Amino acid sequence: MTALWILLGAFAIGLIWFVAAYNSLVSLRNQVDEAWSNVETELKRRYDLIPNLVNTVKGYASHERELLEKVTALREQAVQTTGDAAEQAKVESMLQGALRQLMVRLEAYPDLKANQNFLELQRELANTEDRIQAALRFYNGNVRELNNRIQQFPSNVVAGMFHFTEREFFELEDEAARQAPQVQF
Q: Is residue 90 part of a domain?
């Protein structure tokens, strides 16, 4: 009779562990999804600022048309990208590079540098870049936690049984794009 109670106790402990491991994986997966949603929100904020920036600059720097069109096209491409983190990172790298190039070229326009709309857009863009970086750090931290849980024993057994998959980190390919644009006027 004692052996039966020991066996039932071991089974109950195993069942409790199994349920806790499963629930922990579900919670981490949902945190990753939430973190990615926050990244997308901040990226949308950037995408919304870009047309205002381009329109403000157009009146002052009309001969920078090619670069303005490139920024606009890359913004549209970034908005349309709805893939995984690696695909989004590739497009974001190109967009950040074009924005950085635009800001550097705009240093040559003294009237633009004094324009209040441009200054406000510049501040908003810098603030948005900071918010994007914070959201990406949060996302990548959650991805790390989920991936660790999926890979570590014994939770990897539960992860395998219920087809939990690892997520990709958001990593920019261009080293220069990893930094927020430094604009000095």
A: yes
Query: Considering only CA atoms, which of 12, 19, 5, 11 is closest in space to residue 161?
Result: 19
2: its two tokens? 């004692």
Give the pLDDT score at 128.
93
Q: How far apart are CA 72 and CA 153, in angstroms?
A: 47
Single-letter amino acid code for the residue at 24: S
**Three-class DSSP category at 164:** coil
State the DSSP H helix or E strand holding residue 98, giving kind and residue range, or none if neither. helix 85-105
How many domains does one find in the chain? Answer: 1
HEC states along 19-62? HHHHHHHHHHHHHHHHHHHHHHHHHHHHHHHHHHHHHHHHCCCH
Name the strand (E) or helix (H) holding 66: helix 65-80
Provide the residue range defining the domain that includes 55. Answer: 2-178
Residues 6+ apart with CB under 8 A from 156: 150
- The first and second tokens of residue 94, run together, are 């190109």
pLDDT along the chain (185 residues), means of 10: 92 95 97 95 93 84 84 93 85 90 82 80 90 95 97 95 96 61 49
- Cα–Cα distance for residue pair 2/152, rounded to 1 Å: 34
